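Private note to self, pasted from the team thread so I don't lose it. Backbone tokens:
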């Protein structure tokens, strides 16, 4: 399975972006799907996750500003980002876990740059 992330770019603080992550294979409700980000000099961190149980988790830093919708019919997940802040600047990676295979798959990353 290959994941193609897109939608990154430059935006001013307070703006919005929507990231997309298209999977080359089918995605199901049984997949755990998540977005991570990595800022320069920092470790990769979880931003948001939608689990097979239906539970959705958000990092405290993005709660109320980001959402993680998915469209199984299009084999695509999204990260809708609003009220962006300079500290949201990072490379964003999508991740999908296929429990039947016990494997995680990663997208290539897409850069988000928020200017003040």
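Design output:
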């Amino acid at each position: 399975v290959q994941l193609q992330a897109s939608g990154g770019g430059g935006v001013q603080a307070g703006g919005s972006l929507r990231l997309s992550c298209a999977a080359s294979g089918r995605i199901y409700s049984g997949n755990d799907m998540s977005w991570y980000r990595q800022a320069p000099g920092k470790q990769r961190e979880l931003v948001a996750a939608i689990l097979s149980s239906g539970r959705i988790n958000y990092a405290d830093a993005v709660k109320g500003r980001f959402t993680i919708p998915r469209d199984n019919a299009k084999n695509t997940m999204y990260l809708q980002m609003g009220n962006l802040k300079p500290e949201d600047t990072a490379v964003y990676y999508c991740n999908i876990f296929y429990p039947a295979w016990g494997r995680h798959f990663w997208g290539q990353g897409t850069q988000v740059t928020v200017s003040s």
